[in-house]
Amino acid sequence: MENKRNLILIIATVVIAALLIILSYWAGTNEKKEEAQPTKASPEESVKATASVDITAKGFSPATITIKKGTLVTFTNKDKKEHQVASDPHPNHTKLAGFDSVTNLKTSNTYSFLFEKAGTYTYHDELNPLKFKGTVIVK
Which residue of 23, 71, 99, 101 pairs with 67 in a disulfide if CB–CB is 3.0 to 4.6 A? Predict the structure, then answer.
């Protein structure tokens, strides 16, 4: 049963990563093109930086991060309990479409999201929405 869950989690992670690459490519092709640039940026070039947020027994650490557009943020569960990262508001998750780990993250599991638009995005742990809250500020 545990192997089946691990396989499902691996498949879900691969699917999410593929969707992020496709979405970042699609976003790049819909931007206004400058005539001076004859070639398109590859999806890998959309990720300009990385950042990390740990999920601990006390909450998200750091609870607030400030990043630049194009930063891939990875959330890592360092707690013994399961957690699920989701965009506010609870339970609709509509503040930032697609920002939802969808599945519960077990210990050491990760969830990554590419922040491509400037703004302030609040999020929570779907399993503890009143206790576990965080903010990503994208400049």
Answer: 71
> Can the peptide bond before residue 62 be classed as cis, meaning omega within 30 degrees of 0?
yes
8-state DSSP, 117: S
Which candidate, 57, 41, 53, 29, places its Cα nearest to that of 115?
Answer: 53
Query: What would the DSSP string read from start to end of 31-65?
Result: SPPPTT--SPPPGGGG--EEEEEEEETTEEESSEE
With a cut of 60, say whether residue 138 has pLDDT above it.
Answer: yes
pLDDT at 38 over 60: no
CATH architecture of 47-138: Sandwich (2.60)
Closest to 56 (Cα-Cα) out of 122, 113, 105, 112: 105
pLDDT(71) > 70: yes
Segments making up each domain of the chain, as ranges: 47-138
3-state secondary structure of 20: helix
Give me the chain's average pLDDT, please: 82
Nearest to 40 by CA among 28, 49, 23: 28
Q: What is the rounded CA–CA span in Å between residue 39 and residue 68?
A: 24
